[in-house]
Amino acid sequence: MTDQPLVRPAAITGWPKLVLNYPTDPDCIAALLPPGLEPTSNSTVQISIYCVPVHGEPEFGVSTKIPATYNGTAGNYTLGIGIDQEAAIFISRETNGQPKFPCQVRLFRLEDQIHASCTHQGTTFLRFEGNVTGAPEPTGEEFEENEWWIKSSRAVGGKERSYDFAPHVVRVRTNGSTTHTETLDGTLTLTESSWDPYTELLPMLAPATAELVTNRHTGREITLEGPLDPEAFWPFADTIGGSRWPGTRGGPR
Q1: Do residues 77 and 46 make contact, with C-beta atoms less than 8 angstroms apart?
Q2: pTM of whole model > 0.85?
Q3: Which domains does the chain have, with CATH numbers?
Q4: What is the pLDDT of residues 113-136, one digit of tens each?
């Protein structure tokens, strides 16, 4: 018997996600959080690259999160989720405020080599090349994670500082356990991009750590938590690429 993850050949379920963490300037994180979400003592950017089945087919995606608390509850504010499946983009944003946008994502493993890249609007803004440094470690560690999205809709016709639905925080609470992790030795490269301005707005201050993480989820709840100050949120309402990067910072229209 083996306790390594077992996946049937060609199956799209059970893929581990590639989790990349790097330190950034805490002031940069604070600048991206809309009023009502508060920074923490943690200044780590988390980028996860994954493949999961959605609408009966594989969805390759890349999510970017920064630490934040809301009403005293610790979690992560999601700046964006780039995916390669258009069917899941607009309904997710309209229904739950999930900041999805179209993105070409590659993730594959060849023996112990791990390769990933993300391309948006013609620019490959992220690359990772690495190698597994050890056998999968069974953990069984249980977790509860909180993720913050923002649902809002500016007024039809573009009236200044006016909304059809004022900004509200959406809480995504996920429960489960981590079944396996594999540590990687590799290099994360972030490229300058006007659509995905990691190098400008979340600069990497030290090399990223990397893991392959296999989770077993036991629960996921999406709830509308509470309103944000609509006047204070107005500068954050304009975004680029369907993400929560500030729209006034150079993204083409």
Answers
A1: no
A2: yes
A3: 17-138+179-217 (2.40.400.10)
A4: 999 999 999 999 999 999 999 777
